[in-house]
TrEMBL record:
Family as reported in the entry's similarity comment: Belongs to the binding-protein-dependent transport system permease family. FecCD subfamily.
Pfam family membership, one: FecCD
Superkingdom per UniProt: Bacteria
Species, as recorded: Rhizobium tropici
Topology versus the membrane: Multi-pass membrane protein
Name this polypeptide is given: Iron ABC transporter permease
One Gene Ontology MF term: transmembrane transporter activity
The keyword Transport is annotated on this UniProt entry: yes
UniProt keywords, alphabetically: Cell membrane, Membrane, Transmembrane, Transmembrane helix, Transport
Transmembrane segments: 12-34, 75-96, 103-129, 135-153, 160-179, 191-220, 251-280, 292-313, 319-339
One Gene Ontology term, aspect cellular component: plasma membrane
Amino acid sequence: MGLVAKRRTWWALLALAMAAVILLAFMISLAVSIGEISIPLSTTVKAVSNRLFGTSFELSRIHQGIVWDYRLSRALVAASTGASLALSGVVLQALLRNPLAEPFVLGISAGASTGAVCIMILGLGYGILGLSGGAFLGAVAAFLFVGLLAAGVGGTSERIILCGVAGSQLFNALTSYIVTTSANAEQARGVMFWLLGSMSGVRWPDVYLSGPVAIIGFAVCMAHVRVLDAFIFGTDAAASLGIAVKRAQVVLLGVTAFMTAAVVSIVGSIGFVGLVIPHAARFVVGPSHDRLLPAAALAGAIFMVAADIISRVIVPQQILPIGVVTALFGAPAFALILYRARRTA
């Protein structure tokens, strides 16, 4: 009977995963269709077919350019960004055993923003790889700062969160200082809009970066499913199972910084995705990471594509920063999660 129930559970999870994939594909097609110029789905299919398969459907150059060069690349970056942030949140919450852990809270996003702004304003590095490299170094610097500070004050999960808040404030202050002292008015406006989360300048080179980063991050996380499950019970429990705790921490924290840096370098600092999505996915599929990681990645991708659509249509003839949209929806959702946790405690 237990075997039958287990098979039914896995079939239900498979059906849920297929439904999520279909929903993600639908949201991406919706993101391509919606905008100041409405584009039918048939036109989208023709434009993609012309570029991928060399077909010769007759389309205006405007429609072809909007679909392929602007909206499709933007939707794919939104999906990979959401997946990366959600995966980062799952990993950090497991490693630190704290439901509030996520890149934004722990200062990793703030450090990545500082590193990226150094590249943008001071002219260090070149192109998207230079920006990503600066963001990665900033993310690592922020995490090292938070880690050293937490080690000095005791290292409990609550104190790590407080140290993350301190780190966020420090690196946000550094970013503001660099912008204030080194940027002209036009640069300052562009940087501040970008720091709120912007996909306005996203193009295919960003897809070629964000997509592989999300795939590599997902693969590394899935390879450490057993490790993440063990860390839920603490480092001592993980060590008793034969897990190389320090090595696992370095790898998982490194891939978290890697994904966060890539996201920040492309779209800026976006909060609440890595905080809310893991909780929502955990509520649906449970705490086991072999289910939680794929569910969080898909849910994060769907959420970010939906947020991008909303950012383009909520205010007529104006595009809101996507970080504003995620905060508007993420903050109430997180408050609801806290309220439910309080009632079930």
